[in-house]
Amino acid sequence: MRVYLRTFSLCIVIALLSLVFLFSKHDAESFKAGLKQVRAPLEPSVAKNFNGVKSKQRPTVTASHSLRNVAHKVNSPGKRETSMQLAVVACGERHGEAVNMLKTAAVLSSRALRFHIFAEEQLHSNIKTALDSWPAFIRAKFSYVVHPISFPHENHEEWSQLFKPCASQRLFLPMILKEVDSLLYVDTDVLFLQPVELIWDMLTHFNSTQLVAMAPEHEEPRIAWYSRFSRHPYYGKTGINSGVMLMNLTRMRMAQFKNDMTSVGLRWDELLMPLLQKYKLNITWGDQDIINIIFHYNPEMVFTFPCHWNYRPDHCIYGSNCIPAEEEGVFILHGNRGVFHSDKQPAFKAVYDAFKHYPFGEDLIASFLLPLEAALNGTTHTYCGKVSHFFTRGLGKSVRKIQRMTPVGG
């Protein structure tokens, strides 16, 4: 009887161990299948739509001067395209802002530029008419492509309406501009106050892990939005602002990004939709929040540039808090929250209007700089107006240099 009981007990132990082994094997296979499910649907949907399923129009390519085709360079932080590549996304009423931003880039820069303009179909004609109307000596500085708005087919509506219409288009630029190695993306409400080549050359300062460059969202954590109100992970102490975003697209396409959804790294195109599904009820600023989540888990990939490369009303509305702007002047002015078109921040509006109304070929000092300085002097009743000399400190030097090199009338 005792021998029988021992044999029976041994059989039960063996059976239990067999069950444990089978369940372990099943769990491992389930995880692999789940990961495969995350990876598999994304790339076909992106490729399918970017080849024209949702958007029937093709990019309009216009070259104002002879440029070589952009070559695809693999992981080359020091070797760049023939032209500086500048991208903007314009939807709704934003195309006028976009054209004015491009005007600032063309006026101040001396190197060749390539504009990538993403816009709704009904805006293409107006944008092309505006750029083609510029005088030949300005058009000789750049070429441009007008691209259709394009999102992954299966989630087109969700992406297109995230935060503001078309704003999240920037997330898909690495997959759309497959032949472009590096790119400077800016929002439409941005004005260059220094030549584009100064920020473009930051690409040569990237180390081996860095693939994007942005400015902090704020300089002071105690009053920063992300550190006070965010309901999701964000980069650093105050988050980053994606309104001015310098990208090594080659590295972005190749990188494996750490994340809080899987134990393995995911490619950029594999990461976007799962992040939106996980955090869409917790994000406020749309695609910028997604960018902050990504680089919270991959901080080594970010090159942080100073606040005067992305100067916003937050840097002066409650008093000056951007020390580099105090020392060197503002290099890029970002008029978020519509301040270029309202009287809330008249100093910002004065700069926008000065560029908008400047006639190409006129004396830059007499027809642009002096009227701008006079307009800014009338804004000193506001906090930003009190520091508006930051806006013209570097700009004045660049304008005078260009004026010395450019005869009146072009």
TrEMBL record:
UniProt-listed Enzyme Commission number(s): 2.4.2.42
TM stretches of this protein: none
Any single GO CC term annotated in Swiss-Prot or TrEMBL for this entry: membrane
Highest taxon in the source lineage: Eukaryota
Top-rank EC class of the record's enzyme: transferase
Reactions performed catalytically: 3-O-(beta-D-glucosyl)-L-seryl-[EGF-like domain protein] + UDP-alpha-D-xylose = 3-O-[alpha-D-xylosyl-(1->3)-beta-D-glucosyl]-L-seryl-[EGF-like domain protein] + UDP + H(+)
GO molecular function, one term: UDP-D-xylose:beta-D-glucoside alpha-1,3-D-xylosyltransferase activity
InterPro entries registered for this protein in UniProt: Glyco_trans_8, Glycosyltransferase_8, Nucleotide-diphossugar_trans
Keywords recorded for this protein, A-Z: Glycoprotein, Glycosyltransferase, Membrane, Signal, Signal-anchor, Transferase, Transmembrane, Transmembrane helix
PANTHER family registered for this protein in UniProt: GLUCOSIDE XYLOSYLTRANSFERASE 1, IP22168P
Name recorded for this polypeptide: Glucoside xylosyltransferase 1
Phylogenetic classification of the source organism: Eukaryota, Metazoa, Chordata, Craniata, Vertebrata
